[in-house]
Design brief:
single chain; Multidrug efflux transporter AcrB transmembrane fold; 6 strands
């Protein structure tokens, strides 16, 4: 019978801490130095869709925006859609001026005659979206802390939330590095990521709790490491079955779906890692500081590992 794979995850805790430390440091640096690019849904502005013709470039569209008198045209976001049109986001918040600018751009670039497709969002609506997003995030984290504290223990709840913050920072850091716009889809993806990441963490925590109820012949770290290995196949399977369809969505979905899928994909990969590399590792190190487990470690020092 083949020997079952056993990985000493917690023996690699310093490597996990180093990886997470670097990722978090890079993410925070990117957020501080480059900052996030918020979509018009948060700061107000205009989105116009221009049906173009062959040979028209994004820079030509930008120059036409400047000629049309669009404010801050140099910082306008110009993206190409799958059907070859241009999706243009500007800071113009006046609907009438936005429609006039659209017609001027069409005339300046001699584009095919088309209906005015302009959506304007006022800054007040953007502030409302921001407040709602932050409120949803705060309530989610509080509910997670409360549930895990009641269902398990407060140390598990705090390390689980630490892993969630870790995942969110990495997603936002990558957005800052790549200069991708943060949209309501990004926030929806972040909230979805909390669920996926928390599920993986709870699976591991549940097994750790079961294996450490009457611990007498192993250290807490050894029992926790056994627990991770016992759910390893389930952890891999659930992660892959979640990541693969999201990857397909990112590769072949439309622009709106790709925006959602990108944040979800980064967060899922980070969440699969953090459930073991952050939550379980930090929890194990923290539990080892308790007098009971310190005494057990001293008792087991120098002895071969035995079944608990």
């Amino acid at each position: 019978m083949a020997k079952r794979l056993y990985i000493d995850f917690l023996g690699k805790k310093n490597l996990f801490f180093a990886i997470s430390g670097v990722l978090i440091a890079v993410s925070i640096a990117a957020l501080l130095l480059k900052g996030l690019v918020f979509g018009i849904e948060f700061q107000g502005g205009t989105v116009m869709t221009l049906k173009t013709k062959p040979g028209v470039t994004a820079e030509q569209v930008r120059k036409a925006l400047e000629t049309a008198g669009v404010p801050d045209a140099r910082n306008a976001t110009i993206q190409t859609t799958q059907d070859g049109s241009f999706l243009v986001r500007t800071s113009e918040s006046d609907p009438q001026k936005a429609e006039e600018a659209f017609l001027k751009v069409v005339d300046e670039l001699k584009l095919p005659e088309q209906e005015v497709t302009v959506t304007t969002i006022g800054p007040g609506w953007g502030r409302s979206v921001t407040r709602s997003a932050l409120t949803a995030l705060a309530i989610s984290i509080f509910a997670i802390l409360l549930y895990i504290s009641v269902r398990f223990e407060y140390k598990m709840s705090l390390t689980a939330v630490l892993a969630l913050v870790h995942d969110a920072l990495i997603v936002l850091g990558i957005y800052a590095i790549l200069g991708r716009e943060v949209t309501p889809n990004t926030i929806a993806a972040l909230l979805t990521i909390l669920g996926y990441s928390l599920y993986d963490t709870i699976v591991v925590f549940h097994r750790i709790r079961e294996n450490t109820r009457t611990l007498t012949k192993k250290t807490f770290t050894e029992a926790a490491n056994d627990s991770i290995n016992q759910v390893l196949a389930r952890w891999i399977n659930t992660s892959l079955t979640s990541i693969i369809p999201v990857t397909m969505l990112f590769l072949f979905g439309g622009e709106t779906l790709k925006d959602f899928a990108f944040a979800l994909l980064v967060g899922m990969i980070s969440g699969a890692y953090s459930s073991v590399g952050v939550a379980s590792t930090v929890y194990s190190v923290w539990k080892e500081t308790e007098p009971r487990y310190q005494a057990l470690r001293k008792k087991q020092a120098g002895k071969p590992a035995k079944a608990s």
